[in-house]
Amino acid sequence: MGRKWNNIKEKKAAKDANISRIYSKFAIEIYVVAKQGEPDPEANQALKFVLERAKTYNVPKNIIDRALEKAKGAGDDNYDELRYEGFGPAGSMIIVDALTNNVNRTASEVRTAFGKNGGNMGVSGSVAYMFDRTAVFGLEGKSADEVLEILMEADIDVRDVLEEDETVIIYAEPDQFHVVQETLKNVGITEFTVAEISMLPQNEVTLPQEAQAQFEKLIDALEELEDVQRVYHNVDLGE
Fold it and tell me: Which of 119, 122, 164, 166 is most buried, with most CB under 10 Å away?
């Protein structure tokens, strides 16, 4: 699974370069999740998960607080959660998750991004079956053996524990996200470079140089859309 971790790092680095847009996307996601349940993360596991992920992107407290206050108060913005699936250059596969208050606008913008960058939209289910929903953690300061021992002592089964570039990566079942995180926090591991539930490809593909350049333009175009929250793909971006 090592290459998949490289792709997560690439995605996070790209997002870090567009931090104001990322903060705006998190503000919407926090508002939506808080409004759907309780605005208290201890009573709303979905909100707790989003806040933990926001922490890995260093989202400022004032942005989080403002989104929560909006959810508690008179905020009447309504958002739909949408998933689009499609194909990029050379048969690459892409999943796009969005939150929108205008479904027609978002569908049009996503379709246009695909069409202008060598891709095309697919029907629901045409791509997602080739991806696995997975809890992913990245942490530093421990070895893979140490982390695995901690998890085994807590009787927690995970898919894999790897060590790359001084970072330990844990892959677990999605429903084990909070269990894994709390177990690690109980032994003093409270900082994570990544803590999220992702869609990881079952198999990755390597594109020819020209196709990869076009593919990266497509991914950039999708991630720049205001309504798009997350983009997943099956391309090995290399080192």
Answer: 119
pTM of the model: 0.88
Q: Among the CATH numbers 3.40.30.10, 3.40.50.11440, 3.40.640.10, 3.30.70.980, which is that of 133-200? A: 3.30.70.980
Q: pLDDT digits over 20-33, tens only?
A: 888 999 999 999 99
Which CATH architecture describes the domain 80-129+202-233?
2-Layer Sandwich (3.30)
Torsion of CA 24, 92, 200, 163, to 10 degrees: -100
